[in-house]
């Protein structure tokens, strides 16, 4: 279990004045810090902003970007939007699963390096198919380029 | 830090300085820093240009200075130029040359030949059919476009308020602050006939006047919908990234007109660069006193906030978006009350799309008659579209409303990629429909498209060639809606799931008699009984493909065949007479389904075949066909 530094959470809460209407922004900041929403942090936030844990849990699970499970060092967002779909993003996704040794049920790879997420559209349709690694867009992907990408990230992340 | 502008005169004086400064920048190098070109490495190109120009002692200005130091070269990070397919792009002014597919290795030559020598580098120019088009405006992709909303997108530094001022930015706002009353602003917008660019095409002026009518309410809100969730659309993204001040100006004007003092921009989480540029723009506008209390000494206030979405498509729906801004699950609610009466935090709210707001400054500046000079009677003005899919020139385009699909796909888009045949254009995302060959000459405006079961929607155009299976496209959209349905109302939650089940079965070769009727029945029910627009329009992709391509559905169901070979379970791999008998496929086949003797045509045993495609991928002569 990851150690939660509640001082960091306090800092985030302070930035948003513990305002319950800013809860989405608060959770986004927490997720940026830990790459997911650790459960103790959620309980702590609920108490501080005066919101029931169940409501907070409801909001956290409603939005696709929030994850309650730890994510890999590299979050690969594979675009499955229409433009990417017609330019065969399905084969790229398959190649990424194979290269990382993952399947669709896993939230991160066994070595903790990768998470693969399917997203609807990254808005880079002119360059389809695209894969976003953390905040960097990789354009005009092919299964071969996908495999190379994983190799590069693996070398960089090891 | 700069001091706030306190009066109209001060504003005019400052603007005049920047206009003059812009004129002294004779040579300008605009490096496209839209998402597409950044992904292609254009930030490195920018850094390298800066480095090499510095090393050679060439004076370059990254920022417009109030007191420019004589002749210097402007080096700017601009927003999206739109021609994403040919990126990374670099534009050279004053000639208006466009360099395509630029790499860091090209920088030395650009500095040496173009910046120092004033010479065009043919290698980097855009050539089509043997003709070299030096100037950006001469390239067929641009020539047929009319850019209003995107006029400055790509031509100014997107992170500089000085540049925006230098092209006449915020002049419309001063007009609204000092010359026009709220009613006059709304009248101008109403007369222009501007309709909401987010999809439904509701008249913007009408919406504004409904919000303004709530004079009893002390607090009203302006909300800008930048939650561009439709797969295949990125116009709003480019607008926010390339000309963020234009969006802000439109929103402030809406605030002044309707008597609202708080604005929220809701941007999807997938657009970090748009958030970044808008944040910069807001800080700059606040520093100059164009946002905040007592704007330019007019006594009027307006405050801007940015909210990041968190990955829920349904938040593009008005009441879901306001729920999300309030910190709740983004679920739509029943209407009435409409958001103009009770929207964000229960207050009257004017909610418009990014492109709608971006149209406003020019309407105020140039007038309603000017705006109506383009477009159709019922849909005046222009519309930005994201042109993607199997088309030669993908990118961001803007054409007058009423342009035909043929003009867009062939004249601007350059036709279908790889010489394939055109099949359809999907317009309007998951709420839209397909247009086929017979609709090619139909004017694209709100009303004409509605008649044929499609909508402009936010403006995503995905071009599909003969290899795109329409059943699988329908299934793709239905799957998307299933995942994105918020689950509040049963017709959308359960109905789309059932439709997706049927469509998935059909694509897996398990379709049966009665499936088409059942799809139509469910579609009707979802359309009539869903709570929000997302649900009501969810069956459109299925209905529209059924209407135009029912024979393909029938083939899938009754003949267990997918003519495009994209439904893997239906694919049948066949070895044609091209086979040279090299035995490679037989060796590649993981299940030993291929037999044959050396130098003779091989055969696939379809009962053993698992349709993995390894044979086709490995064939050196392309003798294996799917179908």
Write out key terms for the chains shown.
heterodimer; A: 158 residues; Arc Repressor Mutant, subunit A; Glutaredoxin; 2 domains; 4-stranded mixed β-sheet; 7 helices; 4 strands; elongated; B: 627 residues; alpha/beta; Rossmann fold; Ubiquitin-like (UB roll); 5 domains; globular
Model description:
The complex is a heterodimer of chains A (158) and B (627). With 158 residues, chain A is of the alpha+beta class. Chain A folds into two domains: 6-62, Orthogonal Bundle (Arc Repressor Mutant, subunit A); 74-157, Glutaredoxin, CATH 3.40.30.10. Chain A is built from seven helices and four strands; from the N terminus they run ααααβααβββα. Chain A has a four-stranded mixed beta sheet, with helices on one face. In chain A, α6 packs parallel to α7. The relative contact order of chain A is 0.13. In chain B, strands 2-3-1-4-5 form a five-stranded mixed beta sheet, covered by helices on one side. Chain B has a five-stranded mixed beta sheet with strand order 13-12-16-14-15, with helices on both faces. The relative contact order of chain B is 0.08. Chain B has five domains: 16-143, Glutaredoxin (3-Layer(aba) Sandwich), CATH 3.40.30.10; 169-372, NADH-ubiquinone oxidoreductase 51kDa subunit (Rossmann fold, 3-Layer(aba) Sandwich), CATH 3.40.50; 382-465, Ubiquitin-like (UB roll), CATH 3.10.20.600; 470-559, NADH-ubiquinone oxidoreductase 51kDa subunit, iron-sulphur binding domain (de novo design (two linked rop proteins)), CATH 1.20.1440; 571-626, Alpha-Beta Plaits, CATH 3.30.70. The mean pLDDT of chain B is 92. Chains A and B meet through α2, α4, α5 and β4 of A and α2, β12, β16 and α18 of B.
Concise description?
The complex is a heterodimer of chains A (158) and B (627). By secondary structure, chain A is α+β, with helices and mostly antiparallel strands. Helix content of chain A is 47%, strand content 11%.
């Amino acid at each position: 279990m990851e150690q939660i530094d509640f001082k960091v959470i306090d800092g985030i809460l302070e930035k948003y004045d513990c305002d319950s209407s800013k809860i989405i922004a608060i959770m986004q900041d927490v997720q940026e810090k830990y790459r997911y929403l650790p459960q103790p942090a959620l309980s702590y936030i609920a108490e501080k902003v005066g919101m029931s844990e169940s409501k907070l849990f409801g909001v956290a699970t409603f939005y696709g970007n929030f994850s309650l499970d730890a994510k890999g060092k590299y979050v690969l967002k594979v675009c499955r939007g229409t433009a990417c779909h017609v330019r065969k993003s399905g084969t790229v996704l398959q190649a990424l699963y194979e290269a990382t040794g993952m399947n669709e049920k896993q939230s991160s790879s066994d070595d903790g390096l990768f998470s693969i997420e399917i997203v609807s559209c990254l808005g880079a349709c002119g360059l389809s198919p695209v894969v976003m690694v953390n905040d960097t867009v990789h354009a005009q992907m092919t299964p071969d380029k996908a495999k190379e990408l994983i190799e590069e990230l693996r070398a960089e992340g090891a | 830090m700069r001091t706030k502008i306190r009066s109209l005169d001060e504003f005019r004086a400052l603007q005049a300085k920047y206009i003059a400064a812009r004129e002294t920048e004779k040579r300008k190098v605009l490096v496209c820093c839209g998402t597409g070109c950044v992904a292609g490495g254009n930030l490195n190109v920018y850094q390298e240009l800066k480095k090499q120009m510095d090393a050679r002692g060439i004076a370059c200005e990254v920022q417009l200075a109030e007191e420019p130091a004589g002749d210097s070269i402007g080096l700017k990070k601009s927003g999206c130029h739109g021609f994403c397919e040919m990126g990374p792009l670099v534009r050279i002014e004053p000639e208006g040359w466009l360099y395509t597919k630029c790499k860091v290795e090209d920088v030395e030559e650009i500095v040496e030949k173009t910046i120092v020598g004033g010479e065009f580098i043919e290698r980097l120019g855009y050539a089509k059919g043997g003709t070299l088009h030096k100037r950006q405006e001469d390239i067929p992709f641009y020539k047929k476009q009319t850019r209003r909303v995107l006029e400055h997108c790509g031509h100014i530094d997107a992170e500089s308020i000085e540049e925006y001022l230098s092209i006449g930015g915020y002049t419309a706002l001063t007009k609204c602050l000092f010359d026009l009353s709220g009613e006059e602003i709304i009248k101008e917008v109403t007369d222009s006939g501007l309709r909401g660019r987010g999809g439904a095409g509701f008249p913007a002026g009408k919406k504004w006047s409904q919000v303004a009518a709530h004079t009893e309410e002390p607090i009203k809100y302006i909300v800008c919908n930048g939650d561009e969730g439709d797969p295949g659309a990125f116009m709003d993204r480019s607008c926010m990234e390339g000309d963020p001040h234009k969006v802000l100006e439109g929103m402030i004007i809406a605030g002044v007109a309707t008597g609202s003092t708080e604005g929220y921009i809701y941007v999807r989480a997938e657009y970090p660069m748009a958030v970044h540029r808008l944040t910069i723009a807001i800080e700059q506008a606040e520093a100059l006193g164009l946002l905040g209390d007592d704007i330019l000494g007019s006594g009027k206030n307006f405050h801007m906030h940015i909210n990041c979405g968190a990955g829920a498509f349904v938040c593009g729906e008005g009441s879901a978006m306001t729920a999300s801004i309030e910190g709740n699950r983004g679920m739509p609610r029943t209407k009435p009350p409409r958001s103009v009466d009770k929207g964000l935090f229960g207050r009257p709210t004017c909610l418009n799309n990014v492109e709608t707001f971006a149209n406003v400054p020019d309407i105020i500046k140039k007038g309603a008659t000017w705006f109506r000079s383009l477009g159709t009677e019922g849909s005046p003005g222009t519309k930005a579209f994201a042109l993607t899919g199997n088309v030669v020139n993908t990118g961001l385009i803007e054409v007058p409303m009423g342009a035909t699909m043929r003009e867009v796909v062939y004249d601007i888009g350059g036709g279908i990629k790889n010489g394939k045949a055109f099949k359809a254009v999907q317009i309007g995302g998951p709420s839209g429909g397909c247009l086929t060959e017979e609709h090619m000459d139909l004017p694209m405006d709100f009303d004409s498209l509605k008649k044929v079961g499609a909508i402009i929607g936010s403006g995503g155009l995905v071009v599909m060639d003969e290899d795109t299976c329409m059943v699988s496209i329908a299934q793709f959209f239905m799957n998307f809606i299933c995942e994105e349905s918020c689950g509040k109302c049963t017709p959308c939650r359960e109905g789309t799931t059932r439709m997706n089940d049927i469509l998935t079965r059909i694509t897996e070769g398990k379709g049966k008699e009665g499936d088409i009727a059942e799809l139509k029945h469910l579609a009707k029910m979802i359309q009539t009984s869903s709570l929000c627009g997302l649900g009501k329009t969810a069956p459109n992709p299925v209905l529209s493909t059924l209407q135009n391509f029912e024979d393909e559905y029938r083939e899938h169901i009754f003949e267990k065949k997918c003519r495009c070979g994209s439904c893997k379970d239906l694919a049948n791999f066949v070895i044609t007479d091209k086979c040279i008998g090299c035995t490679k496929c037989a060796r590649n086949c993981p299940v030993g389904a291929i037999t044959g003797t050396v130098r003779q045509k091989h055969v696939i045993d379809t009962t053993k075949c698992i349709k993995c495609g390894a044979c086709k991928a490995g064939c050196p002569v392309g003798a294996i066909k799917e179908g």
